[in-house]
Every structure is written in structure tokens, then in C-alpha cells.
Amino acid sequence: MNETTAATADADTAGGHTAGAGDAPVVVGEGIRKSYGDVVALDGVDVVVEPGEVFGLIGPNGAGKTTLVRALTGTTDAEGSIRVLGASPDAVDPQRIGLLPQSFDPPERLTARELVGYYGGLYDEAREVGAVLRDVGMADDADSWYETLSGGQKRRTCVATAVVNDPDLLFLDEPTTGIDPAGRRSIHRLVERLAADGTTVFLTSHAMDEVERLADRVALLRHGGVVAVGTPADLIADHGGRPRLEVDLDGSRPDDGDVDAVAGALETGAVAGTETGAAVNGPAVEPTADGLRVLGVRPEGIGAVVDALGTAGVEFESLTWAEPSLEDVYLRLTGEQYSPRSGGGSSGDVPDDGGDR
Amino acid sequence: MSRVSRVLTEATAAARSFLRRRTAVFFTFFFPVILVVIFGALVRTQPTGGGLFAEPAGYYIPGYLAVVVLFTPLSRVGSEIARHRDGGRFEKLATTPLTRTEWLLAHTLVNVAIIGAASLLILGLVLAVTDAELVVSPALAALPVFVAVAVALFCGLGAVLGALADSQDGVIAASNTVALPLLFLSETFVPPALLPDWFLPAVAASPLTYFARGTRAIVYEPSAWTGDLAVLAALAVGFLALGAYAVPRTD
Asked: Under DSSP, is residue B187 helix (H, G, I), strand (E, B) or coil?
């Protein structure tokens, strides 16, 4: 509950760049709770979405993201106060809402064109079907039955059904799941265009790069509660940790002597491009499965690290530099396992470089 | 967008979706045909005149019609609800202007059209393969009304079953459990005289009884049928209202 309160405070102060001053928030949820039997899906979530912003919602599977979308769209009953476009979720003008459910399987024996036309036909006003299909990159396959489309094409068609009524508020629950890079780019461009035109977008996703690119603000949900909210840049600055340089020692795990030698060389070398102090103390250099990790190194400091490695007599095969991202924020705040060598699998450690939890 | 437009949009999508499932279309029409062939052409009355199907062939016309009027809407609407629920379609529709009542009306329209066509086929087949004779009178114009009203009634009941059952398998099992007793104990194939007196109130409580009585009064044994139509219509309104309420909106 305390975490939620803190998140709300952040939400109040970290407005998106498109939020108009004085405009009422599009979504205001306070103390949203939802349980399925003994399982608590939402545990007092507070959320505020400003008009025109892209609001990203991230979190592990089972964190409550889809339940929150359902609560806000009135498709599940939840406790707490929820106002969407100034009304309760079940009283919102449906013309102003668009929804792509996470799990959505429309009639299979309709073509993509018929499907979009069908959903558009339920509204007072709808966009031209062909234009919507072009927006999601489905113009060439518009006359294929839904069941014959690839997974990515199906998802893009579903996205089209969510925007066909040109909504003011669009809920996209994992819109790019199963979509190839080109298809994802179509969806990204669509979201960016909608946002530029003033549409408020509530986006849930497991693709951190997608959220980092699209969202003005991001909330991280864990165990049914918001644990952090803010702009991607702020979240990364607060929780993402420091830039790191991975040193590949050709598969051999370094011994403690290597770590100490490199740390010592960095300390005595007054390394330019490393963060003052932090990079030359013990935690700044740590062993990994295949080499060393040097934390707090900016690109201009890589040469100094190479010098330090040479001074310490440590031979290496390659260097990989990375700056912190939203994925690091996610991994840190959710406590999920992390290993850069195994592609984010389950064998490594959570980076411990001094960031806040 | 008017209510009528939304209903027609939903009905058009539902009809296209159904007509493109060839297996479903085939068996929707083939199932009653099998029954007509078996019970109308193959099964013979005992030489003494007793047993089942001892009545003149025309007596059973309402029974054959009842097969499609009862089974098809129950299973189709129930399954459609299960399919919509499993596919998140109700979650999506809940954020559109389409109401639950409109959804059920649209699917009822589709069923009325499908079952109307099937009923016509059955009627022709019964007349072709059995000795049944159709009483031709102005009242015959009310036969499609009976079919439409009864289909609406059982669409409502199908919606209730679809909402209560937690899967498509459950819907099929539930609809069979409900439909089979109704079919044979509603003055369709089994005359009341063959049933014990204590059971007759149950026959009177079956909605299908009023369909059978009314249509029989039109096509076989001319008599008053407006009362049966009134009861059937009242029940249809009630079941449609119940069904619309039962159509899921939230999880």
C-alpha cells in the first residue's frame, strides 16, 4: 500500500509531454482491488492517465495487467473508484473507447476486411476499413480469411478492430505479441500517429523496448500493486543502474586475483570516463560466468578499462558496452533472474550496482 | 448508428461465419432429414395399430419441425456463447455500442432464417416420403410465425445454457439433456394418451407443447391455435429476456 501511495505521487508529478495543462485526466483509478477466489489480482492500484499520453503498463505474467485493463474498461467488476473519460467504466460512451483484449479470437471465417468492417459497423461513426487495414500493414491480405492468416497478421487485424472507431482512449493489451519485427514497426507507427493526433493510449506489453519507445509514462505492476511509475527516462535513472562493460575472457571464469587486479588498475589509473569513485571501488568490477563486468563506464572510459586490463595482465576476447534500459528497471524491480550471457535467462544474478529497489 | 443497424451488422457477421462452416451447415440440415427418413419412412406401425407412430403420418409433422426448432437454436446459441467467451469476444463487444439484447436478437434472426429454411426442407420431405397430407388453409400462413417464435424462445434458453455451461462440450451436453426429454414429451411424437395422467402437467409446462399443439391445429387437425401462439409468444419474450440477461458481459 505504501508502494502504491508513492507511485501515485510520482504519477501526479510526472505528467506526459502531451498532457494538456488543466485537462482532466482521462483515467483515474483509486484503490482498485480485484480478487479471484483467494488470489488477489489487484491490491489497491492507483493509476492516473493524462489526456493524449501513451501510458505503458509492464509487469511479470500474473502481475495483474490484464485485470487492470478489464477493470478500467468495465469488463470485470472491481472494487475501488474508477473514472474513465469522466464516467464510470460501464457508463463510458463506447464510441470513445477502443479495446484490444489480450486474448482475442474473432470469428475465423471472416476476412480481415469483413472483420474490421463488422466491428466498425457497430459504431455510430467508423473509419474507412481500407485505411485502417493499411495502417496496420494488412492491406495486401485484407481479403484472406482470418483463420488462414499468420499469427502476426491475425494480431494486426485485431489491432485494426480496436482502432476502427477512431477512439479517444485506446486500450492495447499486448498488441505485438507474436508479431514479426516489420509488423511490430507497423503497430508502433500506428500508436505514434494516434498519440500525435491526441489519442490516449493505455498499452500493456512484455516488450520493454516497445514500451520504452512508445510510452510517455510507464507503471510497473507486481503482485497486483504498482511499484514504480514515471517516464522511462526517470525510471531508468532511478532504477536502471549504471552503464556496464562486459569483458569476455574467452569462456574462462576469472579468479579473485583478476578482479582485484583490474579494480586496482582502474583505481590507480584515475580513469577518465568512469563515474567518480564508484567505478574504482570493489563493487565496480565483478566476475561473471564468462569474464568480468565493469560498472559505471561511459563510452569514453572504455579505453581506460582496456589499459587497466592490460596493466592487470588480464587477456580478453571481446568487450560489450551497454547502457541501462527499461528492461533493467523491470528486472530489478520485479526481482526476476537476469543473465546477459544467456539472453536474459534464469542462470545469472540480478545486477547489483547500487541502484534503488 | 441505430439499433437496427447494429443488429443487422452482428447478424450479417454471424450468418457469414456460420454459412462458411460447411460441416455445421450440412449437419444442421442433415440431422432432421435423418430423423424424417428413419421415423417417417422406415419405422412401421404394429399390425394391431398400437405402439409408437400409430397416429396418421400428418400427426407427426409438428414433431419433425420441432426437431430443428428445438435442437438447433439450443446448441447453436449455446455454443456461440461458449465460443465468444473463450475467444474474448464478449470482452471486446462490451466496449462497443452493441448491447446483450441486440446480440441475442441478431443471433436469433440468423437462427430464424436457418431454421426456417430447414423447416421448409423437412416439411417437403415429410410430405414426399410419408403419407402425410397438409391441410391447406389461410391458417397455414401462421406456420412460419410459430416456427419463428419457437426459435426465438429456444434461442433464449440456449443463451441461458451457454452462459451456465463453462465450455462448448458442456453446452452440447446440457442442450441434449434439456432437448431430448422436451422433444418426446411435448405432444410431438408421443400422444398424451400414451403418458400417465400424473405426467400430463409436465407436458403442459413444456414450451414445445404449445408449438406442437398450435402447428398441429394448422397443418393436421384444424382447430383454434391462437391461444397456443399467445402462450408461445409470451414464453418467447420471457426466455429472450432471460437469455439477454444471461449473455456474458464481464468475466
From this structure: coil
Range 242-301 of A in CB contact (< 8 A) with B: none
Task: Give me the residue from A97, A106, A171 closest to B87, CB to CB.
Answer: A106
What pTM, to 2 d.p., does this model score? 0.83
ipTM of the complex: 0.89
Alpha carbon A345 to chain centroid, angstroms: 18
Q: Do A351 and A328 form a contact (C-beta atoms < 8 A)?
A: yes
DSSP state of B60: G
CB-CB contact of B208 with B150 (8 Å)? yes
Domain boundaries, chain A: 2-238, 242-323
CB B225 within 8 A of CB B217: yes
User: Does CATH place domain A2-238 in 3.40.50.300?
Assistant: yes
State the Cα–Cα distance between residues A186 and A182, nearest whole angstrom. Answer: 6
Domain ranges of chain B: 3-246
CATH code reported for the domain at A242-323: 3.30.70
Strand ranges, E, within B92-202: none
Which residues have CB under 8 Å from A162's CB, separation 6+?
Answer: A98, A99, A100, A170, A171, A172, A175
Nearest to A94 among B10, B90, B95 (CB): B95
Report residue A186's pLDDT band, with 50, 70 and 90 as the boundaries: confident
